[in-house]
Amino acid sequence: MFLGSILMTAVYIDGFYVVADNQQQTFYMAYEYSNDSMLIYCELDSQGKFIERRWDAGKGNWINRYSSFQTDCDIYGYCGAFGICDSSKRPFCSCIKGFKPRNIEEWSRGNGSSGCFRTTPLQCQRDNTNGSGGAGQGDDGFLKMMVKKVPTFPVRSSIINGNCKDQCLENCSCVAYAYDAGIGCMFWSGDLIDVQKFSTSGVDLYDLYIRLPSSELDKGKNTKVIVITTVIAGIVVITISALFLWCRMAKQRERNEKRKHIKHKIYRENSIGVKLQQLPLFNFKQLAIATNNFSHAKKLGQGGFGLVYKGILDDGKEIAVKRLSKASGQGLEEFVNEVVVISKLQHRNLVRLFGCCVDREEKMLVYEYMPNKSLDSFIFDPVKQKILDWKKRFNIIEGISRGLLYLHRDSRLRIIHRDLKASNVLLDRELNPKISDFGMARIFGGNENQANTKRVVGTYGYMSPEYAMRGQFSEKSDVFSYGVLLLEIISGRRNISFHNKDDLGLLGYAWKLWNEGNIWNLVDKAISESESNSKNEKEIWRCINVGLLCVQEYANDRPTMSTVVSMLNSEISDLKTPKQPAFTQAPLIIQDVKNTDSINDVTLTKVNGR
Q1: 15-32 residue pLDDT tens
Q2: In terms of pLDDT, which residue wins out, 574 or 490?
Q3: Comparing 405-409, 492-496, 592-596, which segment has the lowest mean pLDDT?
């Protein structure tokens, strides 16, 4: 009775029921509330208006709580026969598809009460007129109208949903049907009155199926086909045009880039010649002879940008030759950068540059030879790590810190290394550390403390969070890398591949042990089994504390290298308590590091030293 009426479903569930007074021919509604103190009176008048009133004992009268007339669409038959009322549109009234306004003049004035008429008769009606007989059910179909208030005066049937359509087609006077799970099939014949569309949410929605001749249904299909075909054709044309323009623009950009690259290359090659004149220059033939034509037997290791070979000059001096790969990411900029930076640096903990070679499109750097190769070949090797007792390891830790301090503060230039790691620390005959590989280094001006870059270079596992994620680097970026390296030296474990049973990386594992007061478990067994005196234990604990301070997540919390040197030398007796390091939640695991070389900007260096 109240299908589609706003709020009526909820009211019915709360205890609403209809009472018919046959003597006075009236209907009224009542509620069964659990709270008997509230009096509710409901009225349904002759216009179909439903009013709910509540008794106000204080005022002594009835107060309106609800009225079913919210808009003109609530007036019965406002849009006439076969009209749809939608209060969200202007005008409210429109005709069902397949029908037209009966009185155009009245409709133009906003009065749709005259309703609509069918433009094309149903096929079954035409068949009956022609005397062909039959319902003509094969030529009539149904238009599904969603979110509609069903018309008044339906004929109910208890048959299941699947047979509603068939039963309607069998009866030529049936013009529409609907289905409700609680009611069953509902059929309409004659005019459809009071079809209403609600824009309000929360109202039960019904599907009303309007009977139309197949010609009216095909119009909609044909229109859809035309629209879809037109849209697809338009998209194809636009896509082809855009692709053509993009190809033309890409070719033009490529030509412009080539011209720009040629000009830039000429400029760079001219500038490099001026800068390289300040260094001893080797020719290709000299270095080929020194390395036995770059023999594999002379290979010391493989860095991010090429191979490193051992060589012997004519005067018997041993050298290490870094030969840049033509396919590597390092070009003239990085090469010149490394030459200029190292040539102006002199410190016992920095590798010494003898000269360079630019010949036959080859770019090579000539360093002093380090017989013990790189640090990673010792601390990560189960056999060689036993050679490094605590005294030697502390000497390496301290030497690296002094080399970094020189780069940051004590040299003529302020230099950020940006790629400090175990494979970039070389060891001389006495196992003294020397920082190498300055291809990524950046020179800072006098007032410059931080810089940004869109091209992040370095090695995962050693990068500070602000550099890896935002491209921001400073002295504190090197401090973070130093902290990782310090913990690797103490633990003998590689940060980029270590993970324990709790699925923590080296930094997370160190932080867990620190909080548990069990930090001695972090120490390499090669040290812990032989270094038992209290002096060494205090020194090891101090170094771990310094390492954790260096790898704190925020750059402002990390110490400077001058402070690090002072803490290592016990010049600062009371060390701060470290905060949680960066990258402690999940380990950074890179499989088979020994056979992984760097590509483009992130370097993963082989463990072989040089």
Answers
A1: 666 676 667 666 666 666
A2: 490
A3: 592-596
Q: Where are the beta strands (DSSP E) in 74-173?
A: 83-86, 93-95, 99-101, 116-118, 140-149, 155-157
- Calpha distance 492→482 (Å, rounded): 15
**How large a percentage of the chain has pLDDT more than 70?**
74
Q: Is 149 flagged in the annotation as binding?
A: no
Distances (CA, A) of 572 to 397, 539, 542, 551: 17, 13, 11, 19
Both structure tokens of 561: 């290298």
What is the C-alpha to C-alpha distance for residues 390 and 491, in angstroms, rounded to an integer?
11
The mean pLDDT of the chain is 80
Structure tokens at 302: 């493989």
Per the DSSP assignment, residues forming a β-bridge with 156 are: 186
Pairing of strands 318-324, 306-312: antiparallel
91 prior amide bond cis, ω within 30: yes
CA–CA distance, 563 with 4 (Å, rounded to integer): 78
Query: Would you state the structure tokens that stand for residue 316, as one six-digit string?
Result: 């018997």
| Nearest Cα to Cα of residue 78 among 5, 151, 153, 155 | 151
- Please give the C-alpha separations between residue 4 and each of 97, 151, 253, in angstroms, as whole numbers: 21, 10, 63
* DSSP reduced 3-state for 149: strand
Q: Is 570 left (phi over 0), alpha (psi -120 to 50) or beta?
A: left
Question: In degrees rounded to 5, what are phi and psi of residue 80?
Answer: 70, -170
Short-list 605, 196, 216, CA closest to 423? 605
Q: Please spell the DSSP secondary structure of 150-214, one letter per residue.
A: PPSSPEEE-S-GGGHHHHHHH-TTEEEEEEETTTEEEEEES----EEE--STTSPPEEEEEEEEH
Cβ proximity of 527 and 493 under 8 Å: no
Torsional sign, CA 503, 508, 509, 513: negative
Q: How far apart are alpha carbons 315 and 108 in whole angstroms?
A: 108
Q: How far apart are CA 429 and CA 369, in angstroms?
A: 10
DSSP-based helix, strand, coil % in the chain, nearest 5: 35, 25, 40
**Averaging pLDDT over each range in 120-124, 349-353, 501-505, 563-567, which range is the top one?**
563-567
Q: Which domains does the chain show, CATH number per domain?
A: 8-69 (no CATH), 96-219 (no CATH), 284-368 (3.30.200.20), 376-595 (1.10.510.10)
Q: Does pTM top 0.70 for this prediction?
A: no
What is the enclosing helix (H) or strand (E) of 61?
strand 61-67
Residue 580: C-alpha distances to residues 217, 469, 480, 521, 584 (Å): 70, 18, 13, 19, 8
> CA angle 331-472-484, nearest 5°?
90
The residues near 43 (Cβ < 8 Å, ≥ 6 apart) are 28, 29, 50, 51, 52, 53
Q: Where do we find the tokens 């990068």?
A: 463
Instruction: Return the DSSP state at 35.
Output: -
Q: What is the pLDDT of residue 599?
A: 32
Distance CA 490, CA 372 (A): 19
Catalytic residue status for 410: no
Q: Pick the catalytic residue: 127, 194, 419, 524?
A: 419
Q: What does the pLDDT read at residue 321?
A: 93
Strand 83-86, strand 195-197: pairing: parallel
**Strands 99-101 and 174-180: what pairing?**
unpaired
35 Cβ neighbours under 8 A, 6+ residues apart? none
Query: Cβ(43)–Cβ(28) under 8 Å?
Result: yes
